[in-house]
Amino acid sequence: MIVLSNEVQLGDWEVEISAVRSQGAGGQNVNKVASAIHLRFDIQRSSLPPFYKERLLRLSDQRITKEGVVVIKAQQFRTQEMNRDDAIERLRELILSAIVVQKKRRPTRPTRGSQVRRVDSKVKRGQAKQLRGKVDI
Questions:
Q1: How many domains does the chain have?
Q2: Domain ranges, residue 91
Q3: Helices (H), strands (E): how many in the chain?
Q4: What is the pTM of this model?
C-alpha cells in the first residue's frame, strides 16, 4: 500500500512491478541477476480521485505514455528490494508533485523611487565612463 495522504492511498494491485536485468557495466553478476525494477502504473484504472488523475495526465513528463501509463525504471541500487523501494518512492513523488497547485502570479510594477534610482545610477555610470576619454588641451 502506497500512502499519498490521509485520504488517498494506492493498493498494491494498482502497481505492476517486474524485475529485469540492469544495464551497463557490472561484471559477471550483472548478466545473471535481475536486480532492476520496471514499475508500471495505469493512471486511468487507478483508484486515485479524478483531480489527481486529471493533473497527472496533464503533466508533460517523459515517464508518462500517451495511454496514461507511468513507467519507471529503477536500477540505481544492487538489490532488487532497494530498487523496488526507490521506484515506489519516485512514483509517490511524481503523483505528489502533480497535485501541487502553483500560486497565481500577479504582475507587479517597479516603484517610482526604484525607477529614479535606476536612471540615476545609469547616468552616474555614463559620466564615469565619459571622464575616461581623451583630454583636449
A1: 1
A2: 2-98
A3: 3, 5
A4: 0.70
